[in-house]
Every structure is written in C-alpha cells, then in structure tokens.
Design brief:
Radius of gyration of chain A: 24 Å
Distance between the termini of chain B: 38 Å
Helix content of chain B: 10-25%
Largest sheet of chain B: 6 strands, mixed
Largest sheet of chain A: none
Number of strands of chain B: 20
Order of helices and strands of chain A: HHHHHHHHHHHHHH
Shape of chain A: globular
CATH topology of the largest domain in chain B: Rossmann fold
CATH class of the largest domain in chain B: Alpha Beta
Oligomer: heterodimer
Number of domains of chain B: 2
Helix content of chain A: 55-70%
Structural class of chain A: mainly alpha
Number of domains of chain A: 2
CATH architecture of the largest domain in chain A: Orthogonal Bundle
Strand order of the largest sheet of chain B: 6-7-8-3-9-10
Radius of gyration of chain B: 24 Å
CATH superfamily of the largest domain in chain B: P-loop containing nucleotide triphosphate hydrolases
Largest interface: A-B, 21 and 29 residues
Strand content of chain A: under 5%
CATH class of the largest domain in chain A: Mainly Alpha
Number of helices of chain B: 8
Structural class of chain B: alpha+beta
Amino acid sequence: MATAEDLQVKPKADVLLQTGPSRPPRNMGQIIRFLLLFAGGILMVMPIAFMISTSLKWPHEVYNLNFIPDEPTIENYIYVLEDGRFYWWFLNSLIIAVITTICSVIFDSLVGYTLCKFRFPGRYIVFIAILSTLMIPTEMLVIPWYLMSQQFGWLDTYWGIMFPGLMTAFGTFLMKQFFETVPDDFIEAARIDGLNELQIWWTVAMPLVRPALAALAIFVFLGNWTAFIWPLIVTNSVEMYTLPVGLSSFGDEADVAWELIMTGAAISTIPTLIVFLIFQRFIIRGVVMAGLKG
Amino acid sequence: MANLRIRDLVKTYDKTQVLHSINLDIDDGEFVVLVGPSGCGKSTTLRLVAGLEEVSNGTIEIAGRVVNNLEPKDRDIAMVFQNYAIYPHMTVRKNIGFGLRSSKASKAEKDKRLESVAELLGMTEYLDRKPSQLSGGQRQRVAIGRAMVRDPAVFLFDEPLSNLDAQLRTQMRLEIKKLHQRVGSTIVFVTHDQVEAMTMADRIVIMKDGDIHQIGTPAEVYHKPANIFVAQFIGAPSMNMIPGRVTGDGTIELATGGGLAFERSLPEGREIILGIRPEDLHPGQASGVIEGSVNVREPLGHETLIYVGTSNGDVIAKADGRTPPEIGETVQLGADPENLHIFDAATGEALA
C-alpha cells in the first residue's frame, strides 16, 4: 500500500530550473489541443452567457442577438421575483428534486449493494431486468405512468411527480459497479464484528462509495430539477408546476416572453450550482482516498 | 480462550468437493498453522470455522459447542484478513473499537479495553490517525488490535503477512509470536509460506488438495515427513528426491548411479524414492552417494547452494560459503544414513 510519502509529488528537475513565465506550447499538436479545448469551453459557456444576457434585455431587444444589451435592465428579475408563482414553482422543484435525490441514493445503493454482495438465485436475471428498463425511452413510459397515477389518484400531486424517479436503473447499475470495488473482506470483517446486514451497508459499504453517491446525487438532482415532460403531463394546477413547466408558461399564445424565461432559468441554475459545488468536494475527496488505499 | 474440534469437515461448491473429511483437534492456547499451496483448502477451512462459508458436512466445535449453524458474530471468534480489512474512512480508534460495537460493556470499560490493546500493540499515539496515514506494519497492528479487543475464544489469521515486505514480515512474525506468548490465546493461522509456519507454530497442519497430509510440530514435519509432498513442501531448498530400487544384498541402487547401504530392511526389488535434504548432502566426501559436476552455484554468504548434474537431473547440496566447488568441478556428495528419507515410489508415503 502507498504511504503519504509515496504520494508526494516530486517535481522534475527541468520544472525546478524554470524561473521565467510559463513556457509556450512546444509543438503544433499542443496548440491544436489548446484551441480545441478553448472552442469546447466557449461552446459550453455561450448558452449560459446568452441566458444571462437575454435576462438583462428589454422585450423588444430579445431577438437582437447582440451579446451586450443596449439598455441593460434588471426589470425582468424584479418581475419574476415579485410574481408569487415563481416561488411556488421553485419550492415545488426543490422539494421534488431533494426528496427524489435522497430516495434514489438510498434505494439505488441498497439494490446495487444487494445485487453485488449477496449470492441468491435469479440475481443475474433481476440485474438484467433492471438494466433493460434503460432501453425504454421516457416518452414511452409516460402513458403507463399517467394511467397508474390516474388510478391511484396521484395526478397533480408531489407523489405523482416524484414516483417514477424514486429509484433508477442507471443509479442501481452505477452503485452496483462501485460496490464491486469494496473488498468482501470489509463486509466479512463487519459480519464477524457483529453488525447486521443493514448496519454493514450503512456503516461500512456506503462511506466507501461516497464518490459514486455524490455523482449519483448530482445526476439525479439535475435530472429532476430540469425535468419537463412528466411534470408537464402529471400536473394540472399552476401551484403544482415545477420550475421548467412554470417558466414555459410565461408569455401567451401569440408571443413567448423569452426574457422572463431566461431570467427564471438564470435564477434556477443557482441551486444546481450549489448542489454541484457541495458534492464535487466529495468526489474529489473520494478520488484522493481511493488513491491512498493501495 | 478455548479449544477447537473439527470433525469430518466437508465443503462442496456445486459438484466440486474442496475439503475431504478434515479432522483436526486444536487445544486451548495452541498456535496452529495451516499451510499448503494455493487451492489446498486452508483458507476455506478457516472461513468455515469463522462462519463465512456454510459447512457441507461434518461439525465444528468451539469450546465444546457445535457452531455449524451459528452466525459469525455468535461464534466468539475474531479474524484478521490478508488485506487487513481496516476501514479507510475510520480512525485507528474507531477501527479498533469497531469490534466492541455489539459488546454490552459500558463505554468506560470499552475505552479502557481499547486503550490497553492500543498500548499492547504500541499504537497509542496513532489512535486518531486514519489508516492512510499508517505504514503497512501499523495497519496490520490495527487489524490485530480490532481482533484482540473483543477478547475472542479463537483468533483466526488468514495470511495476514502476505502483503508486507520481507523485513516487515519477519518483524510482524516475531510480534505475533510474542503476542501469543503474552496473551496465550488459541490461534489458527493460515499461510502458504512454510518459513512462517515453521517459525510460529506449536503445530503445523500441512494441506494439499483438500486433505490434511500431516499434523505435527515443526521439528516432526521437518525431520519425519509423512510423504513426499510434505518432505518437499517443508524446507528450502526442497528435499532432493532420487528414485531407487532395493537390491538383493539390502542396498539401494540409485537412479543417479551407485548404491547405498541402508540399515532398515526392505523387500528386494521394491521401487523407492530416496529423499535427502540439501543440508544433509556434503560435497567432497571420497565415498559419496552421488557423483556429478557442479552446474550452478548460488552463493548465500555463509553457505553456497550447488546444483550438481547427475544422470537423474540436478541435485542440490549445500557447500561451504568460503570455499565452494568451482562450476564444472566433479564432486562426490555424501550423506549420513540417519538423515535419509525413504518413500514408497508408488504411494509417496514414508517407509520405515
């Protein structure tokens, strides 16, 4: 196993000798790589920049594609934040995304752990059955989901919006693969030490797959925060709308209020950034820990 | 502390039987090492005792109680794993104290026990460190500490020194032995390293292909091997095996040429295998048992291993470290009759 000393970065001699400003790229290949990365970065940032730019424009300027607004305004933000419906949608999205994330992390890891660490007849079939649901597109599932919601009386309720996402095949697959990296000796040692299976899962296995849990939490939160089709179908009342559904309702049949939609979208990215910043820490720490295990 | 009795233990995976009716009695406070090559069933035996595998047939008794159907936690055992199995997300304190989670002792008592174990293992100053901040030997001590803190009836060690470098392994070997002398617990230790087995065990159990080939003290298995497998497995370099046949005048005619007077009476014409340890073959004797030329020399400092080419392949002998025979030199190798081992060529079992 590697010790802390082993992991210390030993600078190369030529790096130590380098005293001037950072060295220029050595060859064309490196220049092309930098350019491609720069182009990729621009491609990622542009939509966000335009979203913020549009949110600072007056309605008559929206279809003018200039990046800097002629007359920047924060009126759109004032309008959106003074509109009581926005808070409802924001709260709805937050409740749904948080609960779904918690449930998904717990259920997916429980199922993943069971499929990974327990030997029982039909284990492989169950795993394949779960995986095979990944092949069915959401558009095909919304009809049975809707019929189910209707029969159970879940239409236009939080439960109706949340239930399809409380456990995911992708999450189960992800967690199962990560639990494979947890040595069986850890589980067996805990079993000898007197823990029951649920305690072993929670106390021993879960902390060891924290990077996977963080990644799953980010995926699920973002997926539910931005979900549109299913919340649109299952909700009827404006009070039950989630943010994406609510934002799409800005404007009327004749015109779409893009400046308001972009304003709402800009505000709604804040929680996703927070979630990412919180869980990214765990991912990085997890990678460091995995490196030390040796 | 307690004794351990294994009776007619069988383990089967699907249709493959990996343990064939194992019988073993381990006394209270005894240090027993299960040794054998990979796949011999030593770890399986240990896991069956621990309750990590289900017994297919037979019984396991710990302190007079049949434990076949008990959960691992109810067997009053503790196990140290090959890769330590100490939790990377917990401090040393939590790792050692983990074994006490299910104990009904008070917190003060648990803390006291934890501290005393840490002191015994010299880990007191590392209690608040994470495993990643410890060396390999310290991690191994944490694993042993977690087992010790529970004060179990039987300690089970599953190749715990395999991941350590040679120097640390020697050091830990000594520490475990000292620990056993101090604590006096019953220990079952699994290893594939015969040196570990010889140096640590009160008794050694030599296994191969799911069977026990010999049980005995280190001296017994070394000097009186029960069969060819045990003779070759114990001791490094391995015992030389030379085929031969008993002649009419009571001597043994060796495949390497020459004859050998042998005191024990064996029926004429019997095919045998003669076993001679390299340290019992002395080069330079005028009337040697074996003659050949030196093919390879391996200087070890205090002695030199010489590989002597014969008509039956190479024979290994130990020569003086200062003046070993030269490569290509013809040497006569002699042996004392009392150091010879005779095995039946057909069964491989020791004769006489």
